């Protein structure tokens, strides 16, 4: 799949990409200049209905921000039954921007889909060059982990009451 070229498609303007990236929670602390750099350095990709973005078990080396259309996310054992549908402004695989791993699910286009693909080396370079972003991201991840831990404790308490 070749990246879409911005100058060939007026709907994929750099300004639209900057605005869309600014709506993504993990990128919300980026200034407009940093979002511009990220948008300019990332790739726009288009997929046809039914085309796979990636399969469960593939190496996770980038994230996708859906700019148009919908993407179905399915577990590895049942691709016919999506567990969620991701639409415009949502990110797929945000953890892959930070750490190496495998995709836990498959992603398939539902209708025509356009995404902004951000590769890990680009994102890591941004964190290296702008440590204030890295610090903000670290705080955001820590808050998320605290929330997850609290939710798991509530589940454990419910299970303890049942058993």
What does this 3D model show about the protein?
- The chain is an alpha+beta fold and 163 residues long.
- The protein folds into 2 domains: 3-120, Jelly Rolls, CATH 2.60.120.10; 130-163.
- The protein contains 4 helices and 7 strands, in the order βααββββββαα.
- Strands 1, 2, 3, 4, 5, 6 and 7 form a 7-stranded antiparallel sheet that branches.
- α1 (14-22) crosses α2 (32-41) and α3 (120-129) packs across α4 (131-162).
- The protein is globular, with a radius of gyration of 17 Å.
- The termini are far apart.
- The relative contact order is 0.17.
**SSE succession:** EHHEEEEEEHH
Count of domain modules: 2
Tally of strands:
7
Text of the CATH class of the largest domain = Mainly Beta
Largest sheet: 7 strands, antiparallel
CATH topology heading of the largest domain: Jelly Rolls
Question: What is the annotated CATH architecture of the largest domain?
Answer: Sandwich
Q: Rounded to an integer, what's the Rg over CA atoms?
A: 17 Å
The outline comes out as: globular
Low-confidence stretches: 1-8
Give the integer mean of the pLDDT values. Answer: 87
């Amino acid at each position: 799949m070749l990246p879409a070229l911005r100058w060939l498609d007026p709907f994929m303007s750099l300004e639209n990409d900057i605005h869309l990236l600014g709506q993504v929670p993990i990128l919300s602390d980026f200034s407009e200049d940093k979002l511009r750099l990220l948008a300019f350095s990332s790739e726009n990709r288009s997929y046809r209905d039914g085309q796979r973005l990636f399969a469960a078990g593939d190496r996770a080396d980038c994230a996708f921000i859906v700019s148009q259309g919908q993407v179905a996310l399915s577990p590895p054992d049942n691709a016919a039954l999506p567990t969620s549908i991701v639409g415009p402004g949502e990110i797929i695989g945000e953890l892959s921007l930070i750490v190496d791993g495998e995709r836990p699910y498959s992603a398939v286009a539902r209708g025509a889909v356009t995404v902004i693909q951000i590769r890990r080396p680009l994102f890591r370079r941004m964190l290296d060059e702008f440590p204030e972003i890295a610090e903000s991201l670290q705080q955001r991840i820590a808050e998320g982990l605290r929330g997850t831990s609290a939710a798991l404790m509530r589940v454990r308490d419910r299970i303890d009451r049942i058993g």
